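Here's what a typical entry looks like (Integrase core domain protein):
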Amino acid sequence: MEAIVAINAASVQEACGILGVSRSAYYAWRRAEPTTRDEQDSELLPLVRTVFQKHSRRYGARRIAAELSDMGHACGRRRVAKLLEMQGLRAIQPKSYKPRTTESRHRLGYSPNLLLEAEQPTSINQLWVGDITYVPIVGGVFSYLATLMDRFSRRIVGWELGQDMTEQLVLAALTAAIRSRGPGAGLIHHTDRGGQYAGAEYRAVLRRAEMRQSMSRAGDCYDNAFMESCFGTFKTELEMTEYQDHAEARGEIASYVAYYNLERKHSALSYLSPHQFENIKRPAN
């Protein structure tokens, strides 16, 4: 027994030497009672981990703190960051934003950029922004995702995934948005200058819906930066590399869009989801 005690004492002395602390400080730490904050941290640790896992590593400290507050557990961002670090949890990191221009060499005509003089939207169905992005499929092929977002609430109001980047692709997203939202006359519909949005059939649907078509200026990718940023979020949080086939991509994207609209907290919306934000901002009848 004396030999074991001697070995333990030697181990403690060696460890203290490595860490640069005295043995008296080590034993004082051993005798210390846990503080109230320590006890609170012990309760918060599993909650932080649960929220982190629920959102598939998409939430960092700010959004987790907001969700804990919704659950009745007030906790600041710095404290959540510490609790994440203690558990070795790290959120998916977004890639830097690299805007891209769209090839728009067509002779269908361009609409003016109405956003240059428009006021910021103050309600839903005042401004929709749209775009198309590539979705990689195994074998070096692509599917194409067209979406329309309500600029006020960041809600994805219509989307379609197709195997060809055609006018029919964006038409499907537009008709889905009109069907789900029923917008009134005067809504601004803004996209880049891609030929899909300039087609006769697409423009006819916009006219029937009494929408005002707006397009980005030539070569100015920042005119549609909201959709570019949205696609960056999609690809980061879906950890999009290559899907096995078109059907798998459609299923994953459908699930994510529902999550994005109903659950994902947006910093620009005071850490509310688009669904929550629209409910709060809904005008009284």
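Residues 1-7, 96-103 have pLDDT under 50 and may be disordered.

More examples are in the samples folder.
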